[in-house]
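#random but structural
TW: two for the price of one
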Amino acid sequence: MTEILVGLSSAILAGGAGFYASKITIEKKLKEKEEEYKKVLERKEEIEKQAVTEAERIKKEAEREAERILKEVEKEAKLKTIEIEREALKLKEQQEFIIEKELLKRKQELENELKQKREELQNLEKQLLMRESQLEKRLARIEHKEEEITKREQEIHKLEEEIRALENILKEKEEKLKNAEQRYILELQRISSMTKDEAKAELMKKVEEEAKLEAAKLMREIEEEARKQAEKEAKWNLVTAIQRLAPEVTTSYTVSVVDLPSNDIKGRIIGREGRNIRAFELATGVDLIIDDTPDIVTISSFDPLRREIAKTALERLIADGRIHPGRIEEVVEKVKEEMDQHIRKLGEETCLELGFTDVHPELFYYIGKLNYRTSYTQNVLLHTKEVAYLAGMMAAMLGLDEKKARRGGLMHDIGKAISHEVGGAHSKVGAEIAKRYGEPDYAINAILYHHGDEPARYPEAVLVAAADALSAARPGARREVLQSYINRLEKIEAIVNSFENVEKSFAIQAGREVRVIVNAEKLSDEEAYLLTKEIAKRIENELDFPGQIKVVTIRESRFVEVAK
């Protein structure tokens, strides 16, 4: 039986080794696989025949062995019985009891022997069944191997089909290449048969056709560019002409002048390689203009609050004499804190001037901030006070509540304090602020009604709207051109601030430049570069402006440690 197992294992290993060795080439693989498959089938039949023959032989030998043992047992039993009978006859009288006992004992022994022989037969039968089961398992393994061989043959057929498809593709490409070569040869033959003039004429004809197409394309681009440039030039000329009509008003609302003790201080303000002026502009968001004008520095910004902070900070730096980036940042931050306190104090004084002592303290900041906001070049705080007084006087003449009218006039434009920062109509923003800090309903109604956001529910609201119109219509109160200019700068900053990861933005140089400060921890240099391009593209798409706007993105990492 061991020889059969060894033979079967060697046959399976030989088949597997033959199968993997056949991968060298597809043609050899197919031929060798067919021969190997035939050998495996022949070997399978031989193994099956040998297994069946061996099983039958073992079964027959077991049967013969069992019959022989039974015969020997029976023969021995007969012989023993005869001997016992003979001894019993001789000793019957004397040893009858002993003989019977001995017979019983002997009989018991024989029965035990028969039982053992039967157990041996059962064990032989079990072994025979185990061998049959092992043969069945081996046959199952052989069938599994046959299935694997069938699968491998299918894979080989697929590979052959793929190779044929690739060969067809190669043939098609070769045919195309041959056709192209033939066309090229024919073209060369045709060209070679042409004279110099004919070849020149042919070449000139092709060049002329290509030049016509390129010229048409270029003309279209030039026309489009000329149209855009003409529109920009026309707008610029109009804006320039309008600004020349009122230069004093524009200057007074967009620039501040700082007097210098001497002209030498300009170099210290600029700093080595311009680091001081850059730090100052970055901290304040203004444009610092240092030109040949003696003993003055001009601060340019459309935002009056930034301009005032910058002016105060620069005056302190000049008085102190220490001008460097660290000191500049320190002074600017301190001035901003003091400006917040000044704004709150200004709001409180305005409320007391108009006779209100029950205004929420947080509203003082919004009211005071109106002093640094303009609406069509009007100072919004002065406009607010004027509306409050006008509405109060009209209410008094009509017999209505003068305080209600004044309060509505004071609060009607409070949303302008932050509307440029949060977006949305200033009337709705103001109504939200008033509700948040507990302003009475008539004041909220005046805020919303003066721009038609809700109907008038109090007569004082109508008076506030009338007073607002009177204040705005006063001759010289408003200049549309400057306000449109300021609105454009605010819109530039609003567009820039709408982008993610932008911390601050400053429109400077009369709107010709916008500086964008981003978070260095969240943006890499490459991302900041892409953000700059996106901002410039969006400004181009959403705004109409003369000339061009330079977008400068500043990404700065700063680390501070204190030595103690």
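TW: number two ↓
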Amino acid sequence: MNSKHSPIGRIRFLSFLVLFLGSLCIVKLFFIQVVHSERYTTQGEGQYVREAKDIFDRGTVFFESKDGNYVSAATVVSGYKVIINPKSLVDTDAGYQALNTIVPVDRKEFFDNASKNTSYREAVIRIDDATAKKVNSLGISGLYTTQMKWRTYPGQTIASHVIGFIGYKGDDLLGQYGIERSYDKVLSRKDEGVYVNAFAEIFSHLGKYIFNGRGDEGDLVLTIEPTVQGFLEEQVATIQEKWNSDAVGGIIIDPKTGEIRAMASTPNFDPNTYQNVEDQSLFPNPFTESVFELGSVIKPLIVSAAIDQGLITPETTFYDPGHIIIEKSTIYNFDKKGRGQVTMQDVLGQSLNTGMVHLSLLLGHERMRSYLRGFGIGEKTGIDLPGEITGLTANLDSPRDIEYATASFGQGIAITPIEAVLSFSALANGGCLSPTPHVGKMIISSHDNSEETLVYEKGSCPIKPETANVITQMLVTNIDEYYAEGKESLKHYSVAAKTGTAQIPNHEGRGYYDDRHLHSFFGYFPANDPKYLVFFFNSNPKQIKYASQTLFPPFMETVKFLTSYYDIPPDR
């Protein structure tokens, strides 16, 4: 007799089937009662009125303090909403009056909701537990509360362009800007829905544990330091208020690692109330999604290229007549004055356009273009923020000398601020670009709390280490001898820096505005072993012309703050 069809065989098969199904039920109960207990409780409170779209979970985003403590930047909180059941609400006016004594309610909206032919309308959302208890204590039929969850941003406007927000895209709640968007797959809990097929859930979780040890979901730790971010936010706001600027931005980055310690820009927004923002142009991050002609801050890149090629030294002389003619176009110094015989150090320290045009001719088209491309000009940095665009650098492919002449002092090419910051990092980092600029530091798995430190690609080296040393010393001399005649230099710290003032292009016509300027400023310190690189931009400050006036003081205040806050040892 075939054992398969024997009574013993059938008993064994049925026993195995019962054991398997029993095990399956036990595992499913484990997920219901332990893994998803809070979610099922939440759903149970409101399942008789509707399927709750607002009951969701999402990973927490943390800032990390210098001491290693985590500070919440974005999290999910639990609360309640007030529900109207029009079919059960007998006295609409009494219901409104009673509710309005506890929480303000728009009368017209309340009566509109109460008149609907449905059993579920939202009257008030996002109230706390104490308020919900007061509403329930009214004992009004047709008026009750149900639990909900929502995303909240404790810092309000702090780092809003870095964090972004979540919002509905159709029926899906997704990250819209900032790391909420770029890390949406990490922060989302798409497989954590209440109505999950038992087999699918069990085997999806088992797969994660067996093959990966964890899933891709988790909490996100940022490189942003909350105290430093707060300080930079204040500096940026002060600059805009003092000079009535259109927009101001600042960034603090470690040029050796690419970690962004702070990134602030204004005008900004509160992601908690993003839906109330009328001008949606406030949402994109200007560091990654806007381009500017930055002006003279580009000059150190050209000077370093000429040094790297052995064409000049800081002591090489040049006769400055105050203007120079290139292809029938006359290019002037910023004040239209000549200095006579000067050194390359003077060209950089006094920001002489004529000297820069001279260097563009010495380098030639191919070498100048190659160096600028090597510094990352015209390329995306790969930063872990969404929507990054590339600079407008088509002029570097032109055969005309005039395009290279203007590019040598930062006009005619437009780049993103983060693109500029990456290029400057090579000067501070021994000739090599920093690793990819980033704000994401670590992912903490939501399944087993394991920590995954994020790894970023190392940068290339467009100039030699000795070239970086020479240009750094030239930039230190800028601070010590040229800017404010050294009065603002720090006695015990060497600081390398360069200002930039550029005319703003007239996009409605041709050429540039005579009365609108873009100010920029970058620097790093301590110059001999840089810990931080700081960059500011200031768009269209009113009644002031030069970046040294609007950005030099806040830059130096930032240097003083960082050296004190991080207890950075002096280097001189």
